[in-house]
Design brief:
Layout: E1 10-17, H1 24-33, E2 48-55, E3 58-65, H2 78-81, E4 84-92, H3 96-100, H4 102-112, E5 118-124, H5 136-145, E6 149-152, H6 161-176
Parallel strand pairs: 1-3, 1-4, 4-5, 5-6
Antiparallel strand pairs: 2-3
This protein binds guanosine-5'-diphosphate and magnesium ion.
Guanosine-5'-diphosphate binds near residues 37, 43, 124, 128 and 155.
Length: about 180
Amino acid sequence: ADEYGYDYEFLFKVVLIGDSSVGKSNLLSRFTKNEFNPDSKATIGVEFATASLDIDGKKVKAQIWDTAGQERYRAITAAYYRGAAGALVVYDITNSDSYENVSKWLKEMKDNSDANIVIALVGNKSDLGHLRAVPTEEAQNFATEHNLLFTETSAFTADNVDHTFKQLIQNIYEMVS
Ligand code: GDP
Ligand code: MG
């Protein structure tokens, strides 16, 4: 049992990566606490947050790691990736640079993680459709080509956030079980 008396059969480490300001911390707080923080400066970098899920009647715990702003300096260390079973590579649909940088994040991750890691590409800020800079179809095609799960989310409205995390964790579960 863990510190809350919760017994689990599977524990998966999941990491959040992607450029600064794409919404990684808010995706995590939306999923684990149903909270959104409009002021990025007020975002306090937590080391990780946990979520407990039932998958096929099994108790699964996900330990989801967030950066504390190191991504600004491209200084994410190997320890961050170590032991990760899954990753969410996040970009901002209104920021084409953040999408162009996805390839760099994928490379850094692959250099530092297990070959069988499950990866989800996530286009966040879907509520800002009027400012969209990255077409859905382009990102979807990239994801298909690179064997990544793909969704668009809004941490602001909560649209697709639960589904994105649960789908990733379900895919990890299916790979290891
Ligand atoms: P991080 O640097 O990747 O962790 O990004 P943050 O979670 O700190 O978010 C950066 C900024 O974008 C903050 O001002 C957030 O309020 C804002 N933000 C995050 N997610 C969304 C979203 O889905 N929609 C909108 N409109 N803003 C968002
Ligand atoms: Mg953050």
